[in-house]
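Please supply some protein, with fold tokens.
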Amino acid sequence: MRQTILVTGATGNVGREIVKQLSMQDVTVRAGVHSVITGENLKRLPGVEIVEIDFNDPDSLHAAFTHVDRLVLITPLSENQLQMARNLVEEAKKQRVKYIVRLSALGAGAEPGIQLGRWHREMEKYVEESGIPYTILRPAGFMQNIVNYCAESIKQESKFYMPVGEGEVSYIDTRDIAAVAVEVLLSEEHQGKTYELTGPEALSHQEMAMQLGEATGKKIDFVDVPEDAARESLLAHHTPAPIVEAILELYAAYKAGKSAEVTEAVQELTGRPPHSFRQFASDYHECF
């Protein structure tokens, strides 16, 4: 009997890629989306069901979780993310979900760590204490965020801006996170384990700019900006103040070289090396 796997946050960077890769397996994929319209592109994938899901609405959660065997638990970065995660875990318990794969973040286990890590650790604990078998995935920052947050300025100015100095970061391609998620979802060997996932190397943003330039055939510059300028920009885009401060703390960790760790987990779990930033830049060059 085909298993049903619910992926929450299915239109996000990682969720979308997990749904895509799971659709090639012998499972039924239920893609949890904020609205059917945003999940329209996922409907074309084989074996994928679309379900609207409101993390704060018990009726919505009950419908989304009906007959679900396994859960990929992804929550958005928001002011009430802890409550959202708690609601999802509680519904998983009620509906006797057999296994949870939680998308966390690199550094979630650090003490004292940064605020983003502490939030993720709190959400990990909800899963660990649920009584449901689980695996925790802790990826580094996503390469695809360069597309999401920097593509516009690269297209218009051939520049991108972050307050990270010369700090090196081991960004990971979301395609590799998804490949690991599929591996652990379809196996019984990873229960109770936590995996820290990175790309194959740590690069400075200057080096990333150079590789983006090689991929696009134009000169691209990285501009290190003061933290206050980054704060103003984030607030101007209506990012809630607590989230702004948490993001700036992450950037400060990047700047201090605290996100340069490289692990072998992707290679060990999938049997192939993770995408390099150069490969990512080549594959996504049209975005820039």
Notes: Residues 4-139+173-197 form a domain with the Rossmann fold fold (CATH 3.40.50.720). The longest helix spans residues 241-255. The two ends are 44 Å apart (CA to CA). The chain has a mean pLDDT of 95.
